[in-house]
Amino acid sequence: MRYETSACNKRPNGEAGFSAAELMVVATIVIVLSVIAVFALRPTKRNYSADDGAELITNYLRDAYHRALAQRQTIRVDIDIPNQWVILVDENKLPVGDEIEIKRERLVSPVSMNRPSSGGAPIALPPAPYAYNPAVFNSSGIWSARFRSDGSIVDAAGNPESATLYFSPDQVTAKEMGLVRALTVFGPSGAIRKWYFDASNSTFVAGGK
Question: Does the domain at residues 49-206 carry the CATH identifier 3.55.40.10?
């Protein structure tokens, strides 16, 4: 059986296929559509960046909590803002030994962990009894939570550590305050709670959104 090339696909010299000009037109269309898609997705990524940032830290804190209970070791979570890392560390102090880094991941970017302001004033803390002070980052821009073998959280001096961690899109605007998220950690029990900011009532509400 013979197959004949359609005349519409033949070049003037009799060869079948597409010309370089046609291929360049197709490539240009693909590039333009890709650029449009990237810009279209940017607002969506920003809308979910704080949720993603809070989820990442939640996973590390809960991992540390469960490892500390199971291994009977002090497990530490470091949030390193300048270098954009969250790090899980086994302090390995029982019986003796050096620290062992378990894993690390890049922080979600661009997400700010500073306490946002609204109307020129810092936004409210989560409601009582979860109104813990904002997490204090040291001079190196690092905040640490040490989970002990009983699940409690302590600071470097061994004192119970309760804190509020904030997450918001970088340079969040007044119209975007509903995108702000928070985590609270309760030192004595190691309990972790997630919050979203209800901009209409200027208060935090427990859970996700």
Answer: yes
